[in-house]
What does this fold into?
Amino acid sequence: MSKAPDGYRFTPQEQSEAVHDLIRRLDLKDFILVVQDWGGPIGLNYAVRHRDNLRGIVVMNTWAWPAEILPMKLFSIAMGGWPVGYWLQTRRNFFAKVIVPHGIYHAEKVTEGLRNAYTAPFPTPKSRIPTWIFPRQIRKARTWLANMESQLSNLSDLPAHILWGTKDSAGFPLEQMAKWQKYLPLNETEILEDASHYVQEDRPDRIAASIRRIQSRT
It folds into this structure.
């Protein structure tokens, strides 16, 4: 809900640097990183450069490499394209109003209050531009993502918990989960048959348990 500084372009690279700056300003040490969707690349960009400052990581339906599978590419073209994608996001608030609710498996959780929580930050066409930029960046940030993937080996000794919602149609099949298992060999994995893309909405209990599990492991 905060106002972005002048000149801020809402790219994942800038978002990651903002997170990096927040961690530095709060002087956070030995913490557990929890990531989902674009939070994966945004958080992992910090993690691969500051492995020694991490106690562990919880990973949910995300990626940190160039998008290769067709559903992600098509999503990027449709939702982050011009002019249709731009119109859908800025004029119809399509991502917040439609995409988010459809990414939650437990329909009973999609209350009016939840809908408002996701749509309230984007009351005007201008305020919705970031929701167009993010799907667009799935393609545009390819070089940045490739560089990040080349550094994922830095995390091979990082305790990890992987939570994967299987009802996700947004381009995160089990093959993507398997890549995380390869890059994070010290993982414990839970496959959630009753969760879609937004695991944090469908199974917040399992996320809390995963954080506690890493605390106990370390």
User: Anything to note?
Assistant: The radius of gyration is 17 Å.
